[in-house]
């Protein structure tokens, strides 16, 4: 499969009940789980969890009503989809131990391990194992995520089941794996940059007499509404800027001052540094 088409399913879409396992229960795994539970795509009783330290996730599992499994093989044995959410440095060891479990049970492996390709994953599972590689961002927690995906040939018939889950907590886009590092910068890391922009706007509001709490609300809603304007139609961000900037007005004065101070070039430089680091640079 190839292309970069954005799929936009209704968040109220019905997903066939299924058992979903999580190997690793860190921040991203919990964001996915919380998003799926919030919109009732799954119930806590549909979830099977295991991670290295029960003290780090046992209370969370009990709160949401999920099953805590004794080991990763039990997660595979009880699941239809297994989300691999471990640190990149241990993924190979984790999967190597699970090869007999994957051979015995028909499950789809959905990996959210950063920087690990389909080809690398396939070296640690039985031949023919369906694999979907996913890069979600933390906004899946509130049903507003952006997730890139790629699939192997074995997952052609099974991918839609996995993607239906992520369509329920945001948007999905199929990308070539060569573009995943750029996606990490644009979707995975960029929320931090968006928060930085909102915070900077709010600080300017404080400078001019508005409380920080009110300034944050104003800035955040403005950014959210502006993003909706971009997503709602075919007008480019550049054209939308022109619509706001009246001749000799205050907005064009502020816009040009930001550009004079290096706003756009700083954003591009920040993304360049993020992509370089994602690709293994210092």
From TrEMBL:
One of its GO terms (cellular component) is cytoplasm. NADP(+) binds at residues 23-28, 51, 85-88. The lineage of its organism: Bacteria, Bacillati, Bacillota, Bacilli, Lactobacillales. Keywords: Amino-acid biosynthesis, Cytoplasm, NADP, Oxidoreductase, Proline biosynthesis. Catalyzes the reduction of 1-pyrroline-5-carboxylate (PCA) to L-proline. This is Pyrroline-5-carboxylate reductase. SUPFAM superfamilies: 6-phosphogluconate dehydrogenase C-terminal domain-like, NAD(P)-binding Rossmann-fold domains. InterPro entries: 6-PGluconate_DH-like_C_sf, NAD(P)-bd_dom_sf, P5C_Rdtase_cat_N, P5CR_dimer, Pyrroline-COOH_reductase. It comes from Lacticaseibacillus sharpeae JCM 1186 = DSM 20505. NADPH binds at residue 72. Pfam families: F420_oxidored, P5CR_dimer. NCBIfam families: proC. Pathway: Amino-acid biosynthesis; L-proline biosynthesis; L-proline from L-glutamate 5-semialdehyde: step 1/1. The keyword Isomerase does not apply. Its main location: cytoplasm. Its EC number is 1.5.1.2. It is found in: Cytoplasm. Residues 177-278 form the Pyrroline-5-carboxylate reductase dimerisation domain. Belongs to the pyrroline-5-carboxylate reductase family. GO terms for biological process: L-proline biosynthetic process. GO terms for molecular function: pyrroline-5-carboxylate reductase activity. It catalyses: L-proline + NAD(+) = (S)-1-pyrroline-5-carboxylate + NADH + 2 H(+); L-proline + NADP(+) = (S)-1-pyrroline-5-carboxylate + NADPH + 2 H(+). Residues 19-108 form the Pyrroline-5-carboxylate reductase catalytic N-terminal domain. The keyword NADP applies. The gene is proC.
